[in-house]
Design brief:
The complex is a heterotrimer of chains A (118), B (991) and C (186).
Chain A: E1 3-6, E2 11-14, E3 19-23, H1 37-45, E4 53-59, E5 67-73, E6 79-84, H2 94-106, H3 110-114
Antiparallel strand pairs in A: 1-2, 3-4, 4-5, 5-6
Chain B: E1 23-28, E2 31-36, H1 41-47, E3 54-55, E4 62-63, E5 76-80, E6 86-91, E7 101-104, H2 119-122, H3 131-135, H4 142-154, E8 169-181, H5 185-195, E9 201-204, E10 221-222, E11 225-226, H6 227-239, E12 244-247, E13 250-255, E14 260-266, E15 281-293, E16 297-299, E17 312-314, H7 315-323, E18 332-337, H8 341-351, E19 355-361, H9 368-377, E20 381-383, E21 385-391, E22 398-403, E23 409-413, E24 416-420, E25 423-425, H10 428-432, E26 436-440, E27 445-450, E28 455-457, H11 467-478, E29 486-487, E30 512-514, E31 519-520, H12 521-529, H13 535-542, H14 555-566, H15 570-573, H16 587-591, H17 608-613, E32 617-621, E33 624-629, H18 637-650, E34 653-656, E35 661-666, H19 670-677, E36 690-696, E37 702-712, E38 715-720, H20 725-739, E39 746-749, E40 754-760, H21 764-768, E41 772-773, E42 786-792, E43 795-801, E44 809-815, H22 819-832, E45 836-837, H23 840-849, H24 890-893, E46 898-905, E47 917-918, E48 932-940, E49 945-953, E50 962-966, E51 971-977
Parallel strand pairs in B: 1-7, 8-9, 8-15, 9-12, 15-28, 17-24, 18-19, 18-24, 19-20, 34-45
Antiparallel strand pairs in B: 1-2, 3-4, 5-6, 5-7, 10-11, 10-29, 13-14, 14-15, 16-25, 21-22, 22-23, 26-27, 30-31, 32-33, 34-40, 35-38, 35-39, 36-37, 37-38, 40-44, 41-42, 42-43, 43-44, 46-49, 46-51, 47-48, 48-49, 50-51
Chain C: H1 2-5, E1 20-21, E2 26-29, E3 34-40, H2 45-52, E4 63-66, E5 69-75, E6 78-83, H3 89-94, E7 100-104, E8 109-115, H4 119-123, E9 141-146, E10 149-157, E11 160-166, H5 170-184
Antiparallel strand pairs in C: 1-2, 2-8, 3-6, 3-7, 4-5, 5-6, 8-11, 9-10, 10-11
The chains are: A alpha+beta (118), B alpha+beta (991), C alpha+beta (186).
Chain lengths: 118, 991, 186
């Protein structure tokens, strides 16, 4: 059960109060009616689904109700930071980033533990 | 040996910590026994000399008690209070005896002593590792008929109870600064230290009393007193502190993300007659800032030929039975060890008057201190020897001993054999927390290395063997100051992992590695020969470590054997992942309150009780209970619905529409916001008017629909589908907060603020007119699609003139607490005028007669407004709305998409099945080309025939054509029609 | 028309007649109250505060009480305002003269009063928040989850809470609180 810092409530709360809301920093094009099929596909259908540091949206749906952004390491599930909606993509503090990288190397993955017997 | 009277012949006077006068009666396989309070089932049976407790899973070999703790793989029993309170696979070494307990052995037939299944032992060559994967491959047909039934009958150990569990289970969320897992010397010391800092502490231990290893280790002194006594005093001191919670009989079963831990507290399993308010178990969901892991270590057995006979057990277990329970495990006990700790067990037994046949030590050089003590006590030590076999059918009666590398064997008579291969640190919780382990080659054990969370391991689970060092480590971890010293009698040395002498890959013996799943050293060797080179594959091939004990005893041995076979060091062979739960957890605990009425909220409208009184049958719509139909005496559903449908169109009907989602949209930019969220245009809607709106997602598919009323320039009353209310609000909030935050508008859910009484039918106006004040209901003043704020029966109301039936219709919204009173008054008048109550089934039929869609029934997330025949609701003038670009995608704009149309069966009495597939030519070869499917289908009493709505490829161009719905037993011919079946001109709605 | 129209509708409360609790926890339905869901931008908070006669708190998880009205911070621009007396909340908000959204939710919510030495433990049977006095002091409030339903929790005294819940979830909330109360008494 994750513990998530809500930047509006200024407090850590249980994951139970939150709902994940997909990749962050994908702005709806202002001229959406005019964009090409490729641009629409890029905006609406395609997601990076990166392993490691990802930027994603969460909603504190059973709390203050606000959407906000989070930088999370999908391997360790560590939240490196959370920040309010509307702010541009925030750089992850350097120390946190190093910790995340170190963790990434140390945490067992399926490939390491179960995938080497081919 | 002096045996105490009735609590068992093997009870040693003066030994153990139980009070002889406090007894409890229980039965085992129908025979009655007396135990002492505090006994486990294991200690109580051993006190009576009962060692045979069960049969193994695969070979049905007689098995006894191997351990004195939760790691027990053998002694799994069925424990019951009554017919419903029965639990299989209970560990005899954990379950405390309570007065009246009925305990039975498992996995045997017809009896424990004579078990037919034991034939498997003789046939064991056929049941070697991996036999499942090979034996049952051929012939294919035999699988269902022969193999699967056999496997199902013989699989599993216990039998699940058939009655509902009458116990209840509690749950608590709790937060603390420090959680200490384990209350042995390390855990207690760490807790004392942490408690001194004033932090909030939860100290948890799985046993009934604190003390951990001090239960068996009677020679250790802490703080100048007997270790066990010190532990009890320390716990009492901690319990008295306001910042400390001590939980015993409680297992930390999972260590999850971000300091979250799952605990199960066994509240009543040890009590004879628990009070009715007392939960059987309590789930604690703990969020702790820091975790101190003091989980200790688990002794390993020796892997040698026939090491599984009843009477063979871990040395520390024998010591526990003696020093804590006052029970001798035999009269003449052999010892087989690779570690000094077993010597201390022999010393304790010897001093208690038990004869020690010999200590067989497979090391050439046992620890000098224990060797000297053994000599002093006159115990025969055979160093550099091995136990190469044992005998005794239902209990060990001899061990066969040979000098290592020598073929000369001799038999030594014993009635119990205690073993130790050394100690495995319990790193389960550390590993669950995603900490990374390192292998320490010198001591051949995995120890905590890199921490992933704010936790720290202390004591035996951290590989800290020296008592003084352990205490210092625990004090430091706690962060406070405690003055404490401890003293051991002996420093322990030794330990081994893997197969012992005579149980190697070339030896054709049964030397068990995993007792519960009957995995032998040979099975591990076979797995490697068969090409399994990863421990994960070896585990699955042999099932080593996959039983309910999760390999607490077997994993290291299995790993060592595999490592030797592969010629690769242990870290390269790998270690299987430790996963929660540490020990099995009941479903009752995991679901705790979520059963019965509290399984899920049952949402009821303000009129629910009145509808119930009128005989309503209810259906579940999401969490809501909705009145489905109102059968009168003698009516079935079909006839009730037919009557309701006729009555609404002939007279009128009253319907509870309270569950419809409602969202209040308020602010100067409200219309602009709705313009963006719906396909329709809203700025043209005047206050006092309503409009049917369609909401699409960005991809252009219909997401929801509903009537929106404009109450004022800056205030809209939006309705959604019943099931869609929460997600529609979330969808709206998402766009408002993140895409259109500049708009001055706010959203509030008002679903439950209003009770909604729909009155529909030719007499609707006449029915409601007397109740309404402040609004002229005439067609001119209040035509179809109007909304007004007025007064109904003296309370402020929102009155809508809307229709989901095609008749004149009103929806009276009153504040929810007034819903019942208004509903009742309206119904009394309506009934007197010949109207009826109707439910959701009639609502469905009436709307289908008019071709009104239901989102989620007639649409499925791939239907555009145009597909549904609602192209008119998509504004052509707006520059933007959610879905505008999606609707332009080539596939959404192409010809031939599936479109909603009406279907009329050629035989008017034939009612199609919803979901039925539609084809053009029923005689085409299979697989047929499907054109679409039936989405709604009903009997229309008003038309005296069936009607249906369907999604059909190019449907609107096919109107008038005949298509077919092939069913299993027949093919139904249908004609494609428009979607409106009743009042095609639409005049009635304005009447 | 007159004789029927003169029927004045009577109010039926969602939790009328229920009772529960234990030796450590008292559970009772709260009296009917007036409530609005209030949405205001930061710059207009003072105007609404003075119009309502209670200072809208701007610190997360806090509430304010004055003149029989309690204002609970639910989000950065969202408050639940509860008036234990007769309403006037909508009119008072409208009189602020500044941009805002007020929506009457008097009947959407109902409330359960939980009090006694075991009150926090009873609520923690289904609520994941830390209810220790340091973290959730008197006056603290939060929207959160209680078991499977959403609630707004307000601490009114060291051993007393008000649980605001949507009316159709109130049976469930009361039932789960009863279970929590029973366990808190052990």
């Amino acid at each position: 059960m994750l513990l998530i810092h809500c930047p509006y409530c200024e407090e850590d709360r249980s994951e139970l109060e939150f709902r994940w809301a997909g990749e962050a920093h994908i702005a709806r094009p202002e001229n959406i009616a005019a964009i090409s099929d490729e641009e629409f596909a890029e905006f609406f259908f395609l997601r990076n689904n990166e392993k490691g540091l990802t930027y994603e949206r969460w909603r504190h749906i059973h709390g203050c109700g606000r959407f906000f952004n989070a930088a999370r390491d999908t391997i360790s599930d560590r939240f490196l930071m959370t920040y309010k909606a509307g702010l541009p993509k925030q750089p992850v503090p350097v120390a946190e980033e190093f910790a995340a990288i170190a963790e990434e190397k140390s945490v067992e993955t399926w490939e390491q533990t179960e995938g080497d017997a081919r | 040996m002096s045996a105490s009277s009735n609590s068992g012949a093997f009870r040693i006077k003066g030994a153990g910590r139980h009070t002889p006068a406090r007894t409890a009666r229980f039965t085992f396989d129908g025979k009655s026994y007396t135990a002492l309070e505090g006994d486990t089932v294991a200690s109580a049976l051993l006190a009576h000399g009962v060692h045979l407790l069960g049969r193994s899973f695969k070979y049905h070999r007689p098995r006894g008690i191997l351990t004195a703790g939760p790691e027990e793989p053998n002694a799994l029993l069925d424990v019951s209070r009554d017919a419903a309170r029965r639990q299989p696979n209970v560990r005899a070494t954990v379950q405390e005896v309570f007065d009246g307990a009925k305990i039975s052995s498992q996995n045997r037939w017809p009896s424990l002593r004579y078990d037919i299944g034991a034939i498997n032992d003789a046939l064991s060559p056929f049941f070697a590792a991996g036999f499942y994967y090979k034996t049952f491959m051929w012939p294919k047909e035999a699988w269902h008929k022969i193999y699967e039934p056999i496997i199902r009958r013989s699989a599993g150990l216990g039998v699940a109870p058939t009655e509902d569990d009458p116990d209840h289970y509690a749950s608590r969320y709790v937060h603390c600064d420090v959680l200490v897992a384990g209350a042995g010397v390390a855990g207690l010391t760490a807790a004392l230290s942490a408690a001194a800092t004033g932090k909030t502490i939860i100290l948890v231990d799985e046993q009934p009393e604190v003390g951990g290893a001090l239960h068996y280790d009677a020679s250790t002194m802490i703080g100048g007193q007997n270790g066990y006594d010190w532990a009890q005093a320390a716990a009492a001191k901690l319990k008295a502190m306001p910042n400390v919670t001590v939980l015993t009989r409680t297992t930390v079963f999972g260590y999850y993300n971000h300091g979250f831990l799952g605990l199960v507290e066994r509240v009543t399993d040890h009590i004879s007659r628990p009070g009715k308010d007392v939960p059987r178990e309590r789930l604690w969901q703990v969020r702790s800032k820091q975790v101190i892991l003091a989980t200790g270590s688990i002794e390993r057995h020796m892997v040698f030929a026939n090491n599984d006979r009843p009477g063979i057990m871990l040395a520390s277990a024998a010591r526990s039975f003696l020093n804590h329970h006052g029970v001798a495990v035999g009269n003449r006990v052999g010892v087989y060890t690779a570690h000094d700790s077993a010597y201390e067990a022999a010393f304790d037994l010897k001093r208690a008057g038990v004869s020690i046949a010999a200590i067989v030590d497979n090391r050439d050089r046992p620890g000098e201190a224990v060797l000297a003590e053994a000599r002093k006590l006159g115990i025969d030590v055979l160093a550099g020897h091995a136990v190469v076999d044992t005998s005794g059918r239902l209990r060990i009666n001899s061990m066969t001993v040979a000098r290592n590398g020598n073929f000369d064997r001799r038999k030594i008579k014993v009635d119990a054999l205690i073993v130790s291969a050394g100690w495995t640190p319990s790193v389960h919780l550390f590993s669950q927390s995603r900490g990374k382990l390192k292998f320490e080659a010198a001591s051949q054990r995995f120890l905590p290395d890199v921490y992933a969370q704010n936790s720290i391991s202390v004591g035996a689970c951290n590989g800290t063997d020296d008592l003084a060092e352990l205490i210092d480590e625990a004090i430091l971890a706690g962060g406070g100051r405690v003055a404490l010293s401890g003293e051991n009698r002996f420093e322990w040395t030794g330990g081994m992992i893997g197969a012992a002498e005579g149980a190697g890959p070339e030896d054709a013996v049964k030397a068990f590695v995993d007792f519960q799943h009957d995995v032998t050293a040979k099975d591990i060797c076979l797995a490697v020969r068969e090409g399994m080179h990863s421990i994960e594959h070896i585990k699955r091939f042999t099932t080593n470590g996959m039983a309910s004990d999760q390999g607490k005893l077997s994993n290291m041995h299995g790993l060592a054997i595999a490592s030797e076979m592969l010629g690769r060091p242990i870290p390269q062979v790998g270690l299987t992942t430790f996963r929660a739960p540490y020990t099995p957890v009941t479903y009752g605990t995991l679901i705790n309150h979520s059963r019965g009425d509290l399984f899920d909220p049952a949402r009821k409208t303000p009129m629910h009780a009145l509808e119930e009184a009128e005989g309503a049958e209810f259906e579940d719509v999401g969490n809501w209970k909705r009145a489905w139909y109102f059968p009168r005496r003698g009516e079935d559903m079909h006839s009730a619905v037919n009557r309701e449908c006729k009555t609404v169109r002939d007279v009128a009907g009253v319907f509870d529409a309270s569950t419809l989602g409602k969202i209040e949209v308020v602010g100067p930019d409200a219309a602009q916001f709705l313009n963006l969220l719906y396909t329709n245009a809203w700025d043209t809607l005047k206050p006092g008017k309503c409009r049917y709106g369609i909401m699409t997602r960005e991809d252009g598919f219909i997401y929801d629909d509903g009537v929106v009323g404009r109450l004022a320039e800056d205030r809209f009353h939006v309705t959604t589908t019943t099931g869609g209310a929460p997600r529609v609000l979330n969808h709206m909030e998402d766009y408002l907060q993140t895409e259109f935050p500049h708009l001055k508008v706010w959203l509030t859910s008002t679903t439950e603020q209003w009770a909604v009484i729909a009155v529909q039918g030719p007499k609707a106006r006449e029915i409601i007119e007397p109740f309404v004040e402040g609004q002229d209901l005439s067609n001119e003043a209040f035509p179809h699609m109007s909304v007004a704020e007025c007064t109904v029966m003296g309370v402020p109301a929102r009155l809508f003139r809307v229709s989901f039936t095609g008749e004149v219709g009103y929806e009276i919204n009153v504040p929810a607490d007034y819903g019942a009173a208004v509903w009742k008054a309206v119904w009394v008048r309506a009934e007197s005028m010949g109207a009826c109550l109707y439910g959701t089934e009639t609502m469905h039929v009436l709307r289908a007669e008019k071709g009104y869609i239901i989102v989620g029934q007639d649409t499925d997330g791939t239907v555009t407004p145009d597909d549904a025949g609602y192209g008119w609701a998509v504004s052509k003038k707006k520059a933007d709305f959610v879905g505008i670009r999606g609707l332009k995608r080539p596939d959404l704009a192409r010809e031939g998409r599936k479109q909603l149309v009406g279907l009329l069966t050629k035989d008017p009495k034939e009612v199609l099945e919803e979901g039925g597939q539609i084809v053009a030519d029923p005689n085409q070869p299979k697989p047929m080309t499907m054109l679409g499917h039936v989405t709604s289908s009903y009997w229309s009493e008003n038309l005296g025939r069936s009607i249906a709505i369907a999604l059909v490829a190019g449907g609107r161009a096919k109107v008038g054509e005949t298509l077919y719905v092939p069913m299993a037993d027949k093919t139904i011919a249908v004609e494609v029609t428009g979607m409106v079946f009743v009042d095609k001109e639409g005049g009635r709605i304005n009447g | 028309m007159a004789e029927l129209g003169s029927h004045i509708a009577t109010r039926s409360l969602p939790l009328s007649g229920v009772h529960g609790g234990s030796s450590m926890v008292r559970l009772e339905p709260a009296a009917p109250a007036s409530r609005i869901s209030l949405r205001v931008r930061a710059e207009d908070v003072p105007a609404l505060s003075s119009a309502l006669g209670v200072d809208l708190p701007v610190k997360p998880k806090t509430s304010a009480y004055a003149n029989g009205r309690t204002a609970l911070w639910l989000g950065p621009d969202e408050w639940l305002v509860i008036d234990e007396g007769e309403s006037g909340l909508m009119t008072a908000a409208a009189n602020s003269g500044v941009l805002h959204s007020a929506t009457d939710v008097s009947h959407r919510n109902t409330a359960i009063l939980v009090s006694g030495p075991g009150a926090a433990a009873a609520i923690n049977a289904g609520c994941s928040q830390d209810l220790s006095l340091d973290v959730f002091p008197v006056g603290a409030c939060s929207r959160t989850l209680f078991g499977k339903v959403e609630i707004v929790l307000l601490r009114t005294a060291e051993d007393a809470f008000r649980v605001e819940v949507w009316r159709s979830f109130s049976d469930y909330a009361f039932g789960l609180l009863s279970e929590g109360a029973r366990d808190a008494a052990l």
